[in-house]
Amino acid sequence: MGNGSVISSNTTNATSATNGHIQTASTNQTLPASPAAPAPIGNGSKQGEEWALGGPGGACLCLFDIDRTLTGKQSVASPTCPQNSVQHNVYDSAYGRGDLTLSGLGQHVGSTACARCKLGIVSHGTAGGNSMKAKIRSLIQGSGYIPNRWSYPNNIDSPLVLGCSYKPSCVRGVVDWYNRQGSGISPNQVYMFDDIKDNVESFHGTGFNAHQVSCSSRDWGEGGRIG
Questions:
Q1: Is the pTM of this model over 0.85?
Q2: Which three-class secondary structure state does DSSP give residue 136?
Q3: Cα 227 from Cα 214, distance rounded (Å)
Q4: Taking the chain (227 residues) in consecutive chunks of 10 residues, what is each chunk's mean pLDDT?
Q5: How far apart are CA 124 and CA 208, in angstroms?
Q6: Which of 89, 163, 197, 214 has the smallest CB count inside 10 Å?
């Protein structure tokens, strides 16, 4: 997939592009989201043809931004964002600061089709202190061990990357790390989830897939509340 697949949408929750479905531009397939939990990519089929992350003979990789993607606005849950979950006494230093608040997506990564893939983080932020880092890492313990080691753009030696201002290059670094472990991940089986439109659009021409995860209601200058 030489030109990549960029799917950008502002949605009313953290999981669906239109009517509970997500469309992959590269294959023109519409995938129903998992009914059990918020899902960036759902199990499904189109016209009787089974679609699965990874495809024949290859591994897949799902990567997530942290702030307002796996998390929501601090301490905002019901009724504004009923799917959010406030983690009391875990400090989140992003944006307005406060108690870490997990989005619906952040709480249920393991219930999505991404649970079958290799997983990782590519974030512009810092992931707060040790308590928040431990919590975020626990959200993506899925298909394979993820080392308790956080990386930065100049030296990516784990699938947990912080401080990344240009995400395609960091995604490439995570792919290279996994492939050094023998994963065999190709660009068209890489899926990046982010809340910021410009970040998603930066993936044009990279060969990677990207999808915007966001509430339609967004805080001025801060991003989506999520959930």
A1: no
A2: helix
A3: 9
A4: 46 32 31 33 30 56 95 82 87 82 92 93 95 94 87 98 98 97 95 95 97 64 49
A5: 18
A6: 89
Three-state SS sequence of 169-225: HHHHHHHHHHHHCCCCEEEEEEEEEECCHHHHHCCCCCCCEEEECCCCCEECCCEEC
Phi and psi at 184, nearest 5°, equal 70, 45
Please, which residues have CB within 8 angstroms of residue 67's CB and are 6 or more apart in sequence? 94, 95, 123, 124, 125, 195, 223
Token pair, residue 97, equals 């600061």
| Neighbouring-strand partners of residue 51 | 44
**What one-letter code names the amino acid at 48?**
G
Cα separations in angstroms, 221 against 36, 158, 196, 218: 32, 30, 11, 8
The amino acid at 74: Q
Q: How far is CA 83 from the centre of its chain?
A: 17
Instruction: Provide the β-strand partners of residue 63.
Output: 120, 192
CB-CB contact of 68 with 222 (8 Å): yes
What does the alpha-carbon distance between residue 25 and residue 150 come to, in Å, rounded to a whole number?
A: 32
Alpha helix locations (H) across the chain? 104-107, 130-139, 167-180, 197-201
Question: What value, to the nearest 5°, has the Cα angle with vertex 106 and ends 24 and 3?
Answer: 25
pLDDT at position 204 is: 97
pLDDT value, residue 216: 55
Query: What are the tokens at 188?
Result: 């068209």
Pairing assessment for the beta strands 98-102 and 218-219 based on DSSP bridges? unpaired
